Amino acid sequence: MEYLKLLGIVIIVLGFAFKWDTVAVVVIAALVTGLFSGMDILTLLTTLGQSFVQNRVVSLFFLTLPMIGLVESHGLKEVAVNGIQKLKTLTASRILNLYLIVRELGGVFGISLSGQVQFVRPLITPMVTAAAEVKRPLTAKDLDEIKGRSAAVDNFGNFFAQNLFVASGGVLLIVSTMDSLKHPVTGTQIVLYTVPIAVVTLITVALYNVWFDRRFKAPKKG
Amino acid sequence: MAQLGNILLTVMYCLIGFLLAIAGIESIKAKDNPAHIGTGIFWLLLAVVFAFGTLIPYAVTGGIIVIIGILALFKQIQVGKIAPVDPKFAATAAKRIGGWVFFPSVVLAIVSIGIAQVKSLGPQAGQVGIGIGAAVSLIVAILLTRAPVKMLYNDSQRLVRSVGSAGVLPQLLATLGAVFTAAGVGTLTAKLIANVFPAGNQFLGVVLYCVAMALFTAIMGNAFAAFAVITAAIGIPFVVAQGANPAVVAAMGMTSGYCGTLLTPMAANFNSLPVALLEMHDKMGVIKQQAPIAVFLLLIQIVMMYVLAF
């Protein structure tokens, strides 16, 4: 039964969808795939070990952690927060767009913050709320949309700029996977071809945020 | 010189092994974590695999991965409580260092890209660049913060441990991709899909790959996992095999997957965590704000991949 080796894909899809432990799911999927494709135990373990050792390059980002740990404990977040707080008198869209730029620039330099916890909740959402309620009082629905939009902007900036950094997990995984699929690419190439989508995201989301401001105009008189 | 690239890479893997070993020792000492033994063994096993790499018979390394899988299955790998950054110390340091605190990160990016262009280092230039960039930026950070060794040790183990088993997931997924290739999963799915889908059309191939990346990412909640599976099964046979530039296909394939992440409650970290964190009433509130942009970006990427790749 040739099709049984597709069971590995089924395990991955179900395992991730049902939130089983991800490491266990991946190891089990690899074992099942190997066994059903007719490998004996020794060949299977050898394939597994060899592939893992050859893909060590994906985990190179561990080398950058000591530096990141040091700047983090020496006020990385505090300096960023101080900088953003100086912008108190802006409209909702300007705050969101500045944060988007900060997030994308962070991506370029491999600074990955847990943005939702460190910035969106304590800083961005309160500032956008304050800016939006200048013209008219906000309803509960408005507040929910402001929160949703602030969180969304963090995700946009985070996702579409993180592959602009050669040592990011995404770029390393792409390079390693393409190598084992026999179509080698370099990290620099991946960064280069991520630039268009990062720019398109920046422009589109900026316009999307400017459009968002219209909601909070003063109510029409009469 | 290509030889030099290989030697440097081996040194870098040894250094990673050293870092992981520190994380392992500190994890075992963290007795308030109920899984402290398992977590410590996990890091130490990984440390051995990184440091000794090709010196260990591959079958033994395969066995180590199975052990790690078993530890994970029985929930014996856990991050546990890790002492956070001291906010008072950070605030004082922030006043002293100011904007320069970003400087080491800039150094890392510039040095990595710069070294990657040194052709004489051979095909490993990119990887060696990351290692040298990490080393140079760490030295810059030490000079900048004037941190003592003890603090460096502490910050290193804090960060490695808090990454947890998620840190090794990308490498495991790449390994799974390689096992899929060895088992012929890609060729089989390609054959299956070819029965229902017209092969040989470049544009339809791009549409199929990008939409499948977004869809499978939405189902699994993880673009990295989808990338390993879908690129082998669809990306290579239906797009790259038709003459597409593999770098364009891979780069935009991954970001097409991210469009799926924006649309799915399965990506809990990104779409459900903020709902709880921000005390929102609408459980789908974040996804609703993301949906129009996600669909638009997916369409744009299909067009861009087709135009740039062929």
UniProtKB/TrEMBL annotation, chain A:
InterPro entries recorded: DUF969 (IPR010374)
A Pfam match: DUF969
Transmembrane segments: 7-32, 52-71, 156-178, 190-211
The keyword Cell wall biogenesis/degradation is assigned to this record: no
Keywords annotated in UniProt: Membrane, Transmembrane, Transmembrane helix
Name listed for the protein in its UniProt record: DUF969 domain-containing protein
Species in which this protein is naturally found: Schleiferilactobacillus shenzhenensis LY-73
UniProtKB/TrEMBL annotation, chain B:
Ranges annotated as spanning the membrane: 7-28, 40-73, 97-116, 128-147, 168-190, 196-216, 291-309
Family annotation (InterPro entries): DUF979 (IPR009323)
Keyword Membrane: yes
Pfam families recorded: DUF979
UniProtKB keywords: Membrane, Transmembrane, Transmembrane helix
Keyword Transport: no
Domain of life, source organism: Bacteria
Protein name as catalogued: Permease
Origin species: Schleiferilactobacillus shenzhenensis LY-73
